[in-house]
Structure formats: structure tokens, C-alpha cells
Design goal:
Helix content is about 15%, strand content about 35%. It is of the alpha+beta class. It has two domains: about 15-110; about 125-280, Rossmann fold. It has a six-stranded mixed sheet with strand order 9-10-12-11-13-14, sandwiched between helices. The longest helix is centred in the C-terminal third of the chain and has 14 residues, at about 215-225. The protein is globular. The two termini are about 30 Å apart. About 35% of the residues are buried. It holds the Pfam family Peptidase_S9. GO terms for molecular function: dipeptidyl-peptidase activity; serine-type peptidase activity. One of its GO terms (biological process) is proteolysis. InterPro entries: AB_hydrolase_fold (IPR029058), Peptidase_S9_cat (IPR001375), Peptidase_S9B_N (IPR002469), Serine_Prot_S9B/DPPIV (IPR050278).
Length: about 280
């Protein structure tokens, strides 16, 4: 594919290429990229021919999210990978190409995963929503969890464009605020509803020109689904909390569903769209 020829689409499907950076092997006519073809919860390295578009091959291991860098020759790559219940580790791979397939061979473990015996890992869940989509979420049990006891619950939200909260990757310090809540005896729930990213344009554009409409509907549906499947959520003591667009939804949650949310903690919320200078506001 050259600048003098017409543009050729080399991938299709309801999934996203997740990185602006790509690696091109001009000798073999291959392009490598990071994407979410197999699952919206995990980022993987893929390769496809740009000369004769065909199968897209995944080169990284499932059950982890990968952050990958290739060498200039596209013959080796380093991946730093983790899962929601596994701390980051790193490995070096060689890429082996044949006429029939593209495979990898692990050459070395650069960094092994670290075990944190006292760390409280979040647990993931999914459900089929009334809108027909599979929705993904995760939750933290309170650190003082006892079976059969129902705990005050905080729904942590973002819900806007360009952000995905629920991924199969190690959260660590990213969720220090949520760990603090769990340590103080709260259950914490996170749900990615319509409008969040990494599910394709159609899924993310559900809220185009109608911000603040379907987001709370999806959050409440997911929260109620989870409450019917676990034993620790006190539905009479639920708060909603988020920052930026999540702060906006925290206020909208209290305004739209005061029957569900008793408290709103809105961090840096959008309160006037005329004053919020971002791309999706302008559009």
C-alpha cells in the first residue's frame, strides 16, 4: 500500500485497534498492531498482511493484557503483561514467520510477576443487558467481608467517551481510592456501559448528542443485576462516585435515580457543557 494507490482496508469487525503506534515489516508486507480483537477486556499484539489482506494473527497470550514494543526489524518483541489478579511481568519473544502462519517463541523472562498475599483483587463479571449488549464490570468486596452481611456500596463511574475502566489488567495504584473505600468497609462496583470505549464505534456512539441519558440506565441495571447475584450489596445504602465525566454522571445519578442513590460524590464534575473544552463536547 503506497501513497499513490487507493486506501485498502485490511481489518474488519466490531473491535478496535487500540494504539496509534504500528510496526511495518516492508520486506514481508506485514503490519503489526495492538488491538482488542479477541476480547474487549484484553489488549494483544496482532499481525496482518497489507499486501494480500487475510487472517489476522494474535501473537500474545490470552488471559492477559499486553503492552508491547517491537524491534525495527519486526523480528522480536518485548511485552509487559498482567491480569486483574496477576501483577505485571515481562518477557522477550521471537517472531517466526512461515508461508502458512506467524508464531512466537519465548526467549526469556525479563521480569517475573510478584505475589501480594494481602492484596485484595477485584472480581470481574458480565451480564446480558436489556439493550442486547454484553456488559462488563468488576467489584471489590469490603476488606471486612463476612458472608451474609450486606455492606454500603459505592458505584464508581466514568461512563463517557475514550475511557474504559473494566479491563483484565492489574490495577494496583490506579485503584488506590477504591482500595481505601474497601478497607473502610464499603463494597465497590465498576461497570462499563454504553458510551465507554474499546467496544467499537457503534457502542461508544450510543451517547452521541444525548449525553447523560443511557449511561445511568446502564449503571443501575448492572448494579441491580450484581446485587441479585452476590450477597453483600445493601441496596438501601448506595453512593455514586466519579471524576470529570464520572463526576457529571454522579450528579446525574442522584438527579435521575434518587430511589437508588442516597449519596453522590462528584469530583471535578462537568456542570456546564459550554465551558467544557473537549472534542466530543464540540461534536
Amino acid at each position: 500500500m503506497s501513497c499513490e494507490s487507493e486506501v485498502t482496508q485490511i481489518t474488519t469487525g466490531d473491535w478496535e485497534v487500540s494504539s496509534k503506534e504500528i510496526w511495518v515489516d516492508e520486506t514481508r508486507g506485514l503490519v503489526y498492531f495492538l488491538g482488542l480483537k479477541d476480547t474487549p477486556l484484553e489488549t494483544h499484539l496482532y499481525v496482518v498482511s497489507y499486501q494480500t489482506p487475510g487472517p489476522v494473527y494474535r501473537l500474545t497470550e490470552l488471559r492477559y493484557t499486553h503492552n508491547v514494543t517491537l524491534d525495527k526489524a519486526c523480528s522480536m518483541f518485548v511485552t509487559v503483561f498482567s491480569a486483574v489478579n496477576s501483577a505485571p511481568q515481562s518477557a522477550l519473544y521471537r517472531i517466526e514467520i512461515s508461508p502458512e502462519s506467524v508464531q512466537t517463541q519465548r526467549l526469556a523472562i525479563i521480569m517475573s510477576s510478584t505475589d501480594f498475599p494481602d492484596y485484595s483483587y477485584p472480581e470481574m463479571f458480565n451480564y446480558k443487558s436489556k439493550s442486547g449488549h454484553t456488559m462488563y464490570g468488576m467489584y471489590y468486596r469490603p476488606h471486612n467481608y463476612q458472608q451474609g452481611v450486606r455492606y454500603p456500596t459505592v458505584l464508581f463511574v466514568y461512563g463517557g467517551p475514550h475511557v474504559q475502566l473494566v479491563t483484565n489488567s492489574f490495577k494496583g495504584l490506579k485503584h488506590v481510592r477504591l482500595h481505601t473505600l474497601a478497607a473502610e468497609g464499603f463494597a465497590v462496583v465498576i461497570i462499563d456501559g454504553r458510551g465507554s470505549c474499546s467496544r467499537g464505534i457503534k457502542f461508544e456512539s450510543h451517547i452521541k448528542n444525548r449525553l447523560g441519558t443511557t449511561e445511568i440506565e446502564d449503571q443501575v441495571e448492572g448494579l441491580q443485576w450484581l446485587a441479585s447475584h452476590v450477597d453483600f450489596i445493601d441496596e438501601d445504602r448506595i453512593a455514586i462516585h466519579g471524576w470529570s465525566y464520572g463526576g457529571y454522571l454522579s450528579l446525574m445519578g442522584l438527579a435521575q435515580r434518587p430511589d437508588i442513590f442516597k449519596v453522590s460524590i462528584a469530583g471535578a464534575p462537568v456542570v456546564d457543557w459550554h465551558l467544557y473544552d473537549t472534542g466530543y463536547t464540540e461534536r
